[in-house]
Design goal:
It holds the Pfam family ERCC4. InterPro entries: ERCC4_domain (IPR006166), Mus81 (IPR033309), Restrct_endonuc-II-like (IPR011335), RuvA_2-like (IPR010994). By secondary structure, this protein is of the alpha/beta class. The chain has two domains: 142 residues, Rossmann fold; 62 residues, 5' to 3' exonuclease, C-terminal subdomain (DNA polymerase, domain 1, Orthogonal Bundle). Helix content is 52%, strand content 15%. It contains twelve helices and six strands. It has a six-stranded mixed sheet, sandwiched between helices. Strand 3 and strand 4 form a beta hairpin. Helix 8 crosses helix 9. It starts with 12 loop residues before the first strand and ends with a helix. About 6% of the residues have low confidence.
């Protein structure tokens, strides 16, 4: 089992798992160290690594079914239109392929098409634990090739001189999701108020006293909190 904390960067990796994936997959990621996990609906792909790597995960049965109904290539087109790296992983053994009604030639042709036409690497795993291990290793390799050892949000925080605290990052993400805030304003608010509870209860005057925060930003903040 791979502990991601042993990677060249000991910084947490953000992993988002689609909420339609089996709960066992989420639990398997939870067993690994140094990950910030989120479960939510992804409109493209099944697993997203730090907005850098998008993964379509398919069991053998689902792969063959999606090949027959054309869903596979629709999904790959959507993946290829994103700006992230993309990977298809097929989970299961050879015996499972033999139980489907899809001819081996069709399966081989589809895999070749995925790799050559869509430029999406195809990986194989036997089960969920191996899937997680392979994907973490895949992200690590991509990280090294791209020479980006620190996820984007960590690089920003490091430049500001902050320690790498996962809770601190979660606070920033909550605030940055508000219209008009973004990273820098969210960081300034956290620096002043420290906790989200205190920030949400603060007066309008205290809120506006933070550098870079204007009336429009405050109005949008109030609208999200109260509407």
């Amino acid at each position: 089992m791979m502990d991601f904390s042993t990677s060249a960067t000991s910084l947490p990796l953000e992993v988002t798992v689609d909420d339609r994936e089996p709960h066992g997959l989420f639990l398997e990621f939870e067993k690994r160290g140094n990950l910030i996990l989120t479960k939510k609906r992804l409109f493209v792909g099944d697993i997203l690594f730090d907005n850098e790597l998008l993964v379509e995960r398919k069991t053998v049965l689902d792969f063959c079914q999606s090949l027959k109904d054309g869903r596979l290539f629709d999904q790959l087109i959507k993946m290829s239109n994103t700006r992230t790296g993309a990977v298809l992983i097929i989970e299961g053994n050879e015996e499972e392929f033999e139980k489907t009604e899809v001819r081996p030639e069709a399966i081989q042709g589809a895999i070749a098409s995925v790799s050559l036409r869509f430029k999406v690497p195809v990986l194989r795993s036997k089960d969920i634990p191996q899937t997680v291990d392979i994907l973490l290793q895949c992200y690590r390799q991509m990280d090294q090739v791209n020479a980006v050892p620190i996820p984007k949000i960590w690089r920003k925080i490091k430049r500001k001189g902050h320690s790498f605290d996962p809770v601190f990052v979660q606070k920033l993400k909550v605030l940055a999701s508000f219209p008009g805030l973004g990273f820098d304003k969210s960081l300034a608010l956290i620096q002043k108020f420290h906790t989200l509870e205190k920030l949400f209860k603060t007066s309008k005057e205290e809120f506006l006293s933070v550098k870079g925060i204007g009336q429009k930003t405050r109005d949008e903040f109030d609208r999200i909190l109260r509407d």
